[in-house]
Amino acid sequence: MVLRVLDQRALPTRIRWRDVDGAESARDAIKTMVVRGAPLIGVVGAFGLALELSRRDPGPEAARALAERVSSARPTAVNLPRAVSRVLDSYLRGGANEALREAESILEYERESARMIGVHGEQLLMDGDVVLTHCNAGALATVEYGTALAPIRVAIEMGKRIRVIADETRPVLQGARLTAFELVKDGIDTTLISDTMVGYAMSKGLVNKVIVGADRVLMDGHVFNKIGTYQVAILARTHHVPFYVAMPLSTLDPTSSPEDVVIEERDPKEVLYVRGRRIAPRGVKVMNPAFDMTPPEYVSAIITERGIAEPPYRESLTELLGQAQQ
Ligand SMILES: CSC[C@H]1O[C@H](OP(=O)(O)O)[C@H](O)[C@@H]1O
């Protein structure tokens, strides 16, 4: 048995599939961003580990080592280690079949969470709104509805006229390549802008709301998301545009402090090249942090599958988490 995943590095110009049949192929698919997006890498990591455990039944020590290989593929999104840990615990507790059942349960959880984020988040959108989004937090980052794109999809399903502005999201271009791909395919009115145009669009009153996804959210509302999110949040605050974060509770990290979170530094080539063409001279230095942190004071509300959390976030997120654990 294998998990067939869409190679997102080839989108939007080519549809290319890749098989994940174990821990190493899952690690490689996640690390090289064949698949990306916090919930989706959790799902792929879970299945990669579960498929290997069900094929080899390697025993506890080897299983722990395999889990570590998958969990360490990317450091920032909390969904990955959480999902892998759930599969490992299931294997240690109940064997290989239990591990596969846990992976399937994680998939179903993310599918239903995405839909419910849409149902709750839709209430924040008004007919005629133009919603700006950053990076890709759609079906290609999760399962089906997405997170940031879920309220947009549900609002449109309910008859609201919603238009989207997607920024390109350098350097990996998830906005231009993935969000635009998804929304055009769905027939949703979408305008692509470069990252440098966000301030201009807001200054001209072209943006009514912002919704972004998340890779890790702390209990006090610090949001770790794609690089560039922080500056979108600052601009939204400056222009009095509500800035919403959409995330399943699987992305909530109840224990870490901001200084504990590792911001992934990716290959400088992602900045030096665009689709294989070099755009900067040899010898230039490069920074390539894949994520940044947005402090809670810039976050208008956090949309989850259990409802909408409003400041102060420690109280509201604790309440929603408590409901989820009942
Ligand atoms: C719904 S999680 C999507 C989240 O993941 C993206 O990062 P990457 O493309 O590097 O996996 C980005 O931060 C999105 O908001």
Automatic annotation (TrEMBL):
Give the EC number(s) listed in the UniProt record: 5.3.1.23
Q: What does this protein do?
A: Catalyzes the interconversion of methylthioribose-1-phosphate (MTR-1-P) into methylthioribulose-1-phosphate (MTRu-1-P).
**What keywords does the record list, in alphabetical order?**
Amino-acid biosynthesis, Isomerase, Methionine biosynthesis
Cited InterPro entries? IF-2B-related (IPR000649), IF-M1Pi (IPR005251), IF_2B-like_C (IPR042529), Initiation_fac_2B_a/b/d (IPR011559), M1Pi_N (IPR027363), NagB/RpiA_transferase-like (IPR037171)
What GO MF annotations does this protein's record show? S-methyl-5-thioribose-1-phosphate isomerase activity
State whether keyword Cell wall biogenesis/degradation applies: no
Q: Name one Pfam family in it.
A: IF-2B
Identify the residue position(s) of the site Transition state stabilizer.
Answer: C135
Top class in the EC scheme: isomerase
What name goes with this protein?
Putative methylthioribose-1-phosphate isomerase
Give the residues the record marks as binding substrate.
R36, G37, A38, R74, Q174, N225, K226
Q: Which residues form the active site?
A: D215
Source organism per entry reads Conexivisphaera calida
* Recorded catalytic activity of this chain's protein: 5-(methylsulfanyl)-alpha-D-ribose 1-phosphate = 5-(methylsulfanyl)-D-ribulose 1-phosphate
* Claim: Isomerase is one of the keywords in the record: yes
* Family of the protein in this entry: Belongs to the EIF-2B alpha/beta/delta subunits family. MtnA subfamily.
What's a single GO BP term from this record?
L-methionine salvage from methylthioadenosine
